Amino acid sequence: MVEGSIGQTLLSTIEGLGQPELDLLNRTIHQDDFTEQFVIGPSFYHGHRQKLVFHLLSSRRIVLDAYLAFALSCGDQAQVNTSYKKAASALFTLRSIQIKDHLDITSCLMLGWQLLHFVFQLGGREILQVCSQTLSLLKPHYAAGKHFETSHLSFLTSIVLTETAECLMMTKLPTLKLHHAEASSQIDGCVGLCTGFLLHLYDLAAINVDMQNRSRQGQCKAKGLPDLRTKLEGVRLEIRDWKPQLQTKIFTKFTALEVAHMLCQHQIMQTAALLIIHRLQHRFGKEDGTASALACTILSQIDLTVHVTGKSPLCVDLPLIVACLEVEDDSAREQRLRSLSAIGRHSAVFCDRIKSMVMQVWTARRQGRIVFWHDIGHLLSRFL
């Protein structure tokens, strides 16, 4: 892997880049205030940056436009305007890439990951498109029994969790079910101890789609519905009883603040999944006591972690949205969304999108519409 200043390394290896572009690349890869957006803490900074620089040097034909799209999106207005052109070129590459070897696999992953963060910064609607396109290309290579590249795990889990969260909100089926034993035993820079939990979120998203299909087809009293409820109860028990493979090294290898973030992620992700199940079983406005208790647990845990560590933990936006769907007061809900979203700290566009999505559901509730969790996708269709 490559060390040192990216500005010094790339000046002699990449043609056509001026000093301003190199400075932006250096900033988005090497400065801590950017790196902290993507991994839990400093223990993961070195490995994260190594992968970014390695692929920029070894696969620049594939990844450079995506790297520049994200870097320029963090610059001034003129640079932001240029970033859209780079993103369009990178998206064309993603749609046309043909994976021929192992390097192509990880290069495709990095291409999709950078495009996703460009979308977080300036877009919104394209989140699911970028995730699904990337994971569709990677799926044959990360399927069960295939080679699994754990060194790039945090980039993969970032895309998988983002797509799965979008699918749970939009009532879609995720592309990739990440169920490798190697993944489940890894402490991940993005989702910490929750890598093994992603497969349960996939199962929950699949049931959500099934329940929506039954509802649309008017099969609420159909013969197969009890089987679906039994399946949902099975997933609920698996989620309730799930425990991460908590390795003893977590307390010696990582800082106390990093451990606090990992434990918060694990607890609120599990609680959010149980709250989604509750809203698949009981429409919004019914059995609110249980829902409120679960939502308060999520918000209190995030509050506590912020108080202890000074910042919101990564990858808590799905639990945050799930909890805020139970918060009736508009101003309190908006304050929560703006202050506790890790992505929202860096992207006002992303934060505004979340706020509008949650408000859309609350508008339907106040109009007296019957809304189960599997109905949310229809309510939010304009955000795709």
UniProtKB/TrEMBL annotation:
Q: Which UniProt keywords apply?
A: Nucleus
Q: By what name is this protein known?
A: Fungal transcriptional regulatory protein
Organism whose genome encodes this protein: Metarhizium robertsii (strain ARSEF 23 / ATCC MYA-3075)
